[in-house]
Amino acid sequence: MTAPIIGQSHDRPASLDLPRSPRARSNNNFEKYAWLFMRFSGLLLIVLVFGHMTIMLMLDGGVKRLNFAFVAGRWSSPFWQFWDLTMLWLAQLHGGNGLRTVIADYSRKDSTRFWLNTLLAVSMILIMGVGTYVIFTFDPNIS
Asked: Name one Pfam family in it (predicted).
């Protein structure tokens, strides 16, 4: 007979305790790809945001030149529409993914997690939809 492991009684075999997380692991790689997305989108957002801030705030007179006509001229170019759209979508998806992780970490009940994630998804879709609509339907000829 072997010596018992510390904390083990002689009448039952040693077993590993279940992990603290109540959720079962899945075989898909969603969390790995979400983690990679956070890293790459963060790097791209740094370039987009600092480029945006440099152009909007520091070049050609800075903030003083920002008005409706400036935005109308900027969004008349497909390049700037794509730039702003990419920044909007990446910021929403990056922030939403981070908030999804926080919800998963701190919500104890499955129903709470479900409703918070649903609210998060609806709000993200709404903001991305309205932002995309504004960028592509902006009319510089207001009456």
From this structure: Sdh_cyt
Q: Minimal CA–CA distance to 131: which of 90, 93, 85? A: 85
Global pTM value:
0.74
116 neighbors 107 (Cβ within 8 angstroms): yes
Are 97 and 34 in contact by the 8 Å Cβ rule? The answer is yes
8 Å CB contact between 99 and 120:
yes
Residue-wise pLDDT for 1-28, tens only, equals: 555 555 555 565 566 555 455 556 667 8
Domains and CATH numbers, the chain: 33-137 (1.20.1300.10)
pLDDT digits (tens, 9 = 90+) for 71-100: 888 899 999 999 999 999 999 999 999 999
Asked if residue 132 lies in contact with residue 85, where contact means CB atoms within 8 angstroms, the answer is yes
Structure tokens at 97: 């993914």
